Amino acid sequence: MTGPDTRPRLLLVEDDQALGPIVADVLGEAWQVDLVTDGRHGLEAARAGGHAVLVVDRRLPGLEGTELVAALRREHVTTPVLMLTALGTTADRVAGLDGGADDYLVKPFEFDELFARLRALTRSFAPEERWLDLGEARLYPESRIVVTPWSSRVVLSERESALLAELARRPDHTFDRADLLSRVFPHGEQLGTVDTYVSYLRRKIDRDVVLTVRGRGYRVGAL
C-alpha cells in the first residue's frame, strides 16, 4: 500500500503547451506540481494557498506574470516566487524583481539550476539559528534568509548575504567600498562590484536596507 505523498506542492504557471508538461514532469521528482496555463487561473490557485513555491512565466494569457505576482504581494501572499521567462534583459529582470518575484531564471535553462534555485527559495532555517538585527527585520546568515514584517522572507545569494552580514555586525560603522571589497569579494573584483551588490540588496529587500553616507561609503539601515 502506497503511503501519503510527502512532497511539497509547487504551482507552475506556464502557457507553453510543449514546455509546461515537460517542466512539470521533471519537477515531479521532488514536488507535487500543479500546472496552470493562464495568469488568472494561476492567481486563483496561488490565492488558495498550500504551495511551498510558485514558478511563474512572464508572458501569460489572461494576466501577465509580473501583474500576477504584484497582485499576490498586494494581498500579502508571501509564497516564494521564481519567475521563469524568455525575457532576459536587465530591464526585464528588474521589472520582475520589483514586481515581487524572489528570483528570475531566463529560458533556456538547465534543470539542475532550476532545482538549485527552488531549493534556495524554499530553504528553511532553524528558529534557534543566530541572526543579525536589521531594525524590525532579521538576517539569518547561515540560511542566507532575511525575515521582514512585510514580505515574510527573502532568500539572498552567498555574496549578498555576506555583504549584508558584514554591514549588520557593525551597525554604527560606515564602511568604505575598498574595505567591503576586501572583506566580502574575491581578489580581482572591482570597486563597482560593491555598488552592484548594494543595488541587489535594495531591490530584493528594501531601498533603506543599506544607507549611502556621502563621501564615506555604506552602512546598514534599520528597517
Automatic annotation (TrEMBL):
Residue ranges annotated for the Response regulatory domain, each copy included: 9-122
Domain OmpR/PhoB-type: residue ranges: 129-222
PTM sites of type 4-aspartylphosphate: D57
Cellular compartment(s): Cytoplasm
Biological processes annotated in GO: regulation of DNA-templated transcription
Source taxon at top rank: Bacteria
Gene3D superfamilies reported for this sequence: 3.40.50.2300, 6.10.250.690, Winged helix-like DNA-binding domain superfamily/Winged helix DNA-binding domain (1.10.10.10)
Example of a GO cellular component annotation carried by this entry: protein-DNA complex
InterPro entries tied to this protein: CheY-like_superfamily, OmpR/PhoB-type_DNA-bd, Sig_transdc_resp-reg_C-effctor, Sig_transdc_resp-reg_receiver, WalR-like, WH-like_DNA-bd_sf
CDD domains in UniProt: trans_reg_C (cd00383)
Keyword vocabulary terms for this entry: DNA-binding, Phosphoprotein, Transcription, Transcription regulation, Two-component regulatory system
Pfam families, per database record: Response_reg, Trans_reg_C
Regions recorded as binding DNA: 129-222
Keyword Transcription regulation (UniProt): yes
Residues forming coiled coils: none
A Gene Ontology molecular function term of the record: phosphorelay response regulator activity
Name assigned to this protein: Transcriptional regulator
Species this protein is from: Frigoribacterium faeni
